[in-house]
Amino acid sequence: MPYQIGRAPGPGSEPPVCFLRSLGLVLLSARVLASYAIEIAWWKELGQFRTWLSLLYYSMAPLTAATLLAFATLW
């Protein structure tokens, strides 16, 4: 029974893990990014972009502050 020596796995034998993770991250975040892009365009069309920024800030600031406080406390 003859044995065949196969090619050793090298750097080009399979896609890099970093590329696959990046692609997955882009695909998962595409819906959120598209939603924000549409929302920004709509608020700009109304001439109320600064109002949207204020709404975004007032909704994100408490969450960010609580996250930083919890991180500092648990560190």
Give a brief rundown of this model:
By secondary structure, the chain is mainly α.
What do you see in this structure?
Helices cover 75% and strands 0% of the residues. It has helices spanning 17-46, 49-74. Helix 1 crosses helix 2 (49-74).
Q: Which features characterize this protein?
A:
75 residues, 2 helices, 0% strand
Describe the SSE topology.
Blueprint: H1 17-46, H2 49-74
Number of helices: 2
Helical residue percent band: over 70%
User: What is the overall pLDDT average?
Assistant: 87
Order of helices and strands: HH
Give the CA-CA distance, first to last residue: 63 Å
Strand segment tally: 0
Q: What is the strand content? A: under 5%
The rounded Rg comes to 24 Å
Low-confidence stretches: none
**Molecular shape:** elongated
